[in-house]
Amino acid sequence: MRGYLRKIGWTLLTLTCCLTCFADREPAPVARKGLLDLRNTDLSDHPIKLHGEWGFYWMHLLSPDSLTAAAPDFAPYPRLWKDLHLHGRDYPTQGYATYTLTILLPRNRPRLGLEVPDTYCSYKLYVNGAVQSQNGRPGDTKETSTPFWATRTVVLPLAEPDTIVVVMQIANFWHAKGGPYKEILLGNKDDLIQKKYQDAAYDFLLAGCLFMGGLFFLGLFIFGRHDKTTLYFSLFCIVYSYRMVGTDTYTLHSLFSDLNWFVTIRIEYLSLSLSVTLFTLYTRHLYPDDVHPIFTKAMIWFCHTYTAIILLTSTVIFTRFMTTFLVVMFFSIAYAMFVYLKAARHKRSGSLYAMLSTAILLLVFLLLNLHFFGFIPPLRLIVLTAYIAFFFLQSLALSHRFAQTFKTAAIQAQQGLRTKSEFLSTMSHEIRTPLNAVIGMTHLLLRNEPRADQKEDLGVLLFSANNLLSIVNNILDYNKIEEGKIGFEQIPMDLPAIARNIVAGLKNAAGEKGVSLLLEVDQRLDRKLIGDPTRTSQVINNLVHNAIKFTKEGSVKLIIHADLLTESAATVTVKVVDTGIGIAKEKQSMIFDRFTQADSSTSRSYGGTGLGLAITKRILELQGVALQLKSEPGKGSEFYYTQTLNFSEEAIGQHEEFTTFAFRDQLLKGITLLLVEDNPLNVLVAQTMLENCGATVDVATNGLEALEKLNAARHRLVLMDLHMPEMDGYEATVLLRKRGETLPIIALTASTPKEVESEAYAAGLTDIVVKPFNPDDLYRVILQHAGPANQ
C-alpha cells in the first residue's frame, strides 16, 4: 500500500513541476488604460489573451459610435463584477456594462481571429463598429435581455486596420455571478479554428465514450444479475457524459444555438449533483464494508437537497450555492479515495484500480481549478486522457468485481454439481437396495413354477421394477454425461450378438403390445469390432425400446448393415424402423432435448422421462457420430446412425458366454460362499438364489464379522457389500488382503461400477456386481472366479 501511495505522490509532484513551467513562461502583453500594444508581438506564434485594464462603463450599454457619451473607468478584464473594487465601490452581480479595448497590431501579421468565451450571462461583441460575436441578447432590463452560453470563434475582416477597437456589452439578470470570467483570445485565425475543432472533437469523443460505456454497463445490468453497482456506474457514465459537451466551452450549444438557457443551465447543474449522488451510491455498493453509512447518507441527502433546489428555485438562487456544492463534492471525492485506500488495504476485488482512478479524478479537478484561476493553460488533451483513464480504471474495478462474481458463481455451481451428483448417487443407492429385493424375489418366484395367473402378475411386477430401474439408470447416465465423466472402452465386441440379445430381451415387451420385433443382420460381419459393447448396447437398446413404446401396431425392425468393408475396418449403419405414431418435422429436433417429448401428452400416454434419446444422442456425439431421424406422423419413424469401427482378430462367436443356465439346482453345488451383507432383505434374496443352485452360504452382517468368519479352507469366494455399519466392505477387503487372503472377493453394490471401481480395485476387490442383479449374472461371476462346482 505504501508503494502505491509513493507512486501517486511522485506522479503528482512531476505534474506540479511540469505545470510550473507554464507559469514561468515569458508574460504576454497586458492592456493598460484600455490600450493593448501588440506592435512588437508575433501573433503567428500563439494566441494572445486580451486581458488587463479595459474601459468600463457600468450600467451603460454603449454602441461603438456612442462611446464618447461618458468617460470610462478602467477595470481588470476578465473579472466577475462581485470582485470589482473601483473608487471604493463594490458592484452587484445583477446589472449590465460595456467594456472597450483598443488594440495596436503589428504590421506583419497573419489573418486574425478571435475566440470569445461565454460570460455571465449574455454579451454582444463589436470589432471596429461591426458585430462579430453574440451570445443571447444583452439589455438594460430583464425583459429585454436573453441569456445564452457558448464559445464562439470568429474570423476578423480580411483588411482590418493596424488598430482595432473592441466593444463588448454584457448583461446579467439571472445568475449569482455576473460579468466576464474567461479571457478572449486573439491570434492566427487558422490556429483558432483548428483549436475550435480539436476542442469539439475532444468533447464529443469523451462524451461518446462515456455514454456508450454507460449503455454497455446498463445492458449488463438489465440482462445480467441486476447488480446495483453496475446500474449506478452506468447511470453515472450516462449523466456525466453531458458535462463533456454541455459545460466549459459549451460545444453542444454551439451546434444548437436555439437551446433554451433556462433548461440547459438546470441540466448542467443537475448533471453534476446527480453524478455525485450516483458516484457515492456506486462507491457504497462497490465496497459496502469500507464505507461509513452516515457519511454516504449525509452526502446523498445533501445532493438530493441541492437537486430539489435546482428544480424548484430560480437560477439566481440555485447558482448561488454552486461554490458550496463544489467544496462538498471535493470532500466526497477525497472520501471516496479514502474508501478505496481502505478497500485496497483489505485486498478487496478491484480496489487498486478504483483507488488509482480516484487519484486521477482528483488530479483532473486540480488541473481544472488551476486553469480556472489562470495559473495554467487549458491542457485539454491531458484532461481528456485523465478522464478516459479514470473511467477505464473504474471499468476495470467493476470488471474485476464481475470476474470475482462469476468465479464465485462458478465455484457455487461446481459445489451444486457435486451436491447434485452426491444426491443422485445416494438416491441411486437407496432405490436400488429395495429394488434388489423386489427384482430378486420376483425372479425366484418366477422360477418356482407359479400358476398361469401368478406368472402374469409376477411378469407385470418384474416389468415395472425393471422400468423403474431403467429410469434411475437414465438419470444417472445423463448426469455423468453432463459432468464429462463418461468414458468409452475399446475392446472386441460382437455387434450381431448384441443385437440378438437386445431383440430377445425386448421381445416380450413387443409381444404384449401385439407388435412384431424383427432383426436383420448383415452376414458379412464375421469378425468382432473394436468398440464399447456397454455403450453400444445402451444406444441400440434405447432406440429399440423407444420404437416399441411409440408403436401401437405393426412392427419394429432392427437393421445392422455393413455399408463399407475393408481389411481393417467396417462402416456400419444401425437402423431402427417402426410403424409407430411418427413425429412432425417441426418437432423432430426437440425430442433429443433432455426431459422433452414431442407433445405434452406423450409422457402421459406412453410414459418415460424423455431422457433416452438425449442420452443416446450424446453418447454417439461423444464418439463423433450423429444420430439421424426420418419420420412422418401416422406412418412411423426411422432412427439411424453410421459408425466406422476397426476389426479385431476374434471371429464372431469366439469366446461367447452362455446367457442362461440349465440345471440350476446343481450349478453351484459344492461351493461354499461367505455373504457379507447388512440388509436382511438382500441377505434373504441372495442366500435363496445361491442355495437354490446348490451353494452353501455363510452370512456376516458387517466387515468385522466377515474378518472373524472367513475361513480360506472352507470358503471359495466372498460376496462383499460395500456400505455397512461398523466396518464397510472397502476396509474389510484391505484387512483381508493384508493378512494374506487371496480368494476372490466380489463387490455387491447398489452404486454404479464407474462410481466405485477405482476405490474397489484399489482395496483389492476382484469384481463388481451391481444391485439389483439378474440371478444368471450373479451365477456367471461366481463360476468365473470360483471355478466349476464340485472342484
What does this structure look like?
The chain has 791 residues and is α+β, with helices and mostly antiparallel strands. It is built from 20 helices and 25 strands. It folds into 4 domains: 35-189, Jelly Rolls (Sandwich); 195-410, Rhopdopsin 7-helix transmembrane proteins (Up-down Bundle); 489-651, Heat Shock Protein 90; 664-786, 3-Layer(aba) Sandwich (Rossmann fold). The longest helix is centred in the middle third of the chain and has 67 residues, at 380-446.
Topology, element by element:
Blueprint lengths: L1 H22 L11 E3 L10 E2 L2 E7 L14 E5 L7 E2 L2 E2 L4 E10 L7 E5 L5 E6 L2 E6 L16 E4 L7 E10 L12 E4 H35 L4 H19 L4 H5 L5 H26 L6 H20 L2 H6 L1 H24 L5 H22 L7 H67 L5 H32 L7 E3 L1 H18 L2 E7 L5 E5 L1 H17 L4 E12 L3 E10 L23 H5 L5 H11 L5 E5 L3 E16 L20 E5 L3 H13 L3 E5 L2 H7 L7 E5 L7 H10 L6 E5 L3 H11 L3 E4 L4 H12 L5
Parallel strand pairs: 1-7, 15-17, 21-22, 21-23, 23-24, 24-25
Antiparallel strand pairs: 2-13, 3-4, 3-7, 5-6, 7-12, 8-11, 8-13, 9-10, 9-12, 14-16, 16-20, 17-18, 18-20, 19-20
Helix pairs in contact: 2-3, 2-10, 3-5, 5-6, 5-8, 8-9, 9-10, 10-11, 10-16, 11-15, 12-13, 13-15, 17-18
